[in-house]
Amino acid sequence: MGRKLLTEHINVEGINTFEVYRKHGGYRSVEKALKTMTPDEVVEEVKKSGLRGRGGAGFPTGMKWSFLAKPEGVPRYLVCNADESEPGTFKDRQLMSKLPHLLVEGMITSSYALGANTSYIYIRGELLYVLRILEKAIAEAYANGFLGKNILGSGYDLDLHVHPGGGAYICGEETALLESLEGKRGNPRNKPPFPAVQGLYARPTVVNNVESIAAVVPIINEGGDEYAKLGVGKSTGTKLISACGHLNKPGIYEIELGVPVEEFIYSDEYCGGIWKGRELKAVVAGGSSVPILPKELILKTAAGENRLMTYESLSDGGFVTGTMLGSGGFIAMDETTCIVRNTWNFSRFYHHESCGQCSPCREGTGWLEKVLHRLEHGHGHMEDIDLLVSVAKQIEGNTICPLGEAAAWPVAAAVRHFRHEFEWHVTNAKEAAQPGAVYRANGVLV
Amino acid sequence: METITVKPQFSEAAQAEIKRLLTHYPDDRRKSALLPVLHIAQAEFGGWVSPEVQDLVAETLGLKPIEVYEVSSFYTMFNLKPVGKHVLEICRTGPCMLRGSDELTAHLERITGAKVGGPASADGLFTLKEVECLAACGFAPIVQVREKYYERLDTPEAVDAMLTELRNQVHRPALPWEETGLPNALANN
Question: Where is each NADH-ubiquinone oxidoreductase 51kDa subunit iron-sulphur binding domain found (chain A) (predicted)?
Fold first, then answer.
């Protein structure tokens, strides 16, 4: 069993309180950083750790930090992205509701590293109950001298606040999040300028995912080099995987990066196999935006090597035969799943969530949803299949933010790997439109 | 549904909470408090934000009314029409669909008599609303009611337990800054 750096104490009774969290080694990273390290030394440790952004993009966190502009006399901000909304992803909600102090501790240590004196946690509005939990933890941290003026006598001041969204997937995009935090519609901004130069209130800002901020705690406690020893190659450390769909044991698993996908799905230590004794059909490995892969390509690469839960192994083969680790939202689908219906569902999601600023996304996501709806409901044409690919291509790369790609990739991949199933929806339209209908090759489920 | 004829006012508890929230942002950035204050308004005034309530929010934060309207209409959590006593927000996105959200929606429509996207049930108790991913996919299918998640609603028993709990709620659960549930909140319906 791999090491658990974030969730080791998640089931300890009362770990959501300051007292119990502290007893289990909580807030050591704050003491170490504020008393024995300079801010730059903290940044250096995070760089050494190889930590990559856990929200989905996988950009090195230490490098992101080093881009932060530091003009004299201008306040800068750290904003935690807790707008967890990528379908299939529910790790941050679990982490924050069970271990609120881990995020608070990570925010203090990270804010110190960046020289921020005011920091925010932007949490999706649906999670107001988690906001209450975090506010309680923050109040405890203030009461114990870990927030406020002159923390631990170090001369460092920090105020930390939680801010709710209002229900909008797009606010997970960092500039839309900042707009939302300013009390506006969540329309992503044109870049440049990047948030590192002009972010919240046009001041230098770093936006990091909940899990990335939490990972700073073990990185500072144990050192960046120690953290980097876990994992494989450039996929260092541990990752929270949100496992859902047709699994025997859906839930959150903290894995050491490098676990084989097959072991993750089938071993009792993790998901315990596919429910109801069924066969696996397909997996969306990193949240709804990443390409879907059929069973044979998620378990093994095109070259026949075991697929591992790492950034590199999952993307082996590019988008032709590979996918992405993304946010770690791992959605398993059994043999009775209709891929067309599932793809339509995801397209409806992106159409609903498009902010409407860029025409290719606003119109294109609508086209994708409409064409998929008619295929799924027995009114499709054979040309529709290539039309989907064509629309997806016209969205990709032509929008201000990555929601366009997120909408296009799943459709392109579903057609790439399951074209026969789309064709069957045209040739056997009546049968395919029945509720629960699923494509069978020669009468056999595939 | 009663029509609001007098100008709505925030309760004292809510006013105090808004004052506290405003300390979170720079003095010249009061607009930042808009989303949190809209949440408070929706909780205070019967689960939706009428134009009058939105005007109150604008006045409270020193904003133009349009600055509130354009935001309340962008985010899906704010109900712009009257709702039943309880709004059941049913997740319809992929992972929930794989675990039976379509069947759950049909079941809820049958037993409450309300339709998704339509008016509240005849008894005024339930409004059904389909929403996108609620970030609880491992516990699918899911319904959110106010601040509470009801998870693994894949059996009639689990659904019944949720509905019974809601039917027995006289007042909505109190929020942290309130001593008790607001008397005017559920009574509005």
Answer: 340-385
